[in-house]
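call fold(seq) -> tokens
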Amino acid sequence: MLFTLAAQPPRATLMRLLILAILFSASLADWQYKSRPDLAPPTLNITVSSASEISPGYLFVAPYSGVSWDSPLTHGPLQPGPYIFTSTGELVWSGFGYVSGFITNFQVAKWNGEDVLFAFESSRNFRHGHGHGHAKILNRNYETIREVRGGNSALLDVHEFHIVDEKTALVQSYKPIPYDLKNYGARPKSQWIVEAIFQGIVKLSGLKAKILMRISRG
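ret:
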């Protein structure tokens, strides 16, 4: 039996590819940090300090662009994602790469007695003003320990996700439904609305979400 070995690229070609990869990665960063030149976190510009009026602790933010990436307008942060800053604007943690997509609702919580972080990881429909996805929960080591999705295949909405009593989550989903909007000046092709649904409380224990209650217009 004969085997054909693929020709190996010359060493010079490999070096060129390596240099190009490094330069491409560096082009997405702004070199703020010598130890992590690949990061380009947003810079907080605190012009009016209110340190005496706020409780001590960290700031949790998840900045994003207000326009689609297809727009020629100026975009938002180079690396959108969840970030932790001190009250004076110093970076504590960059979540770029830990959580991806359109990131919202970045907070801290207690889950089964453990301090956790959670953020909503989703896609965004810029034209219709909504997004859907799932919540990602990280432990103290910034490791993903759970992703929470809606029960009955419901698409969770970006606006609400709250962990209560350390074991359940209050979530929101939406469902497009037909509705007569002619009296409101809607065009024939726009005869529908988006119904907001509080799927109530989704149990976090176990592999499958369990719906404990559901609240909707119906």
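The helical segments are 11-27.
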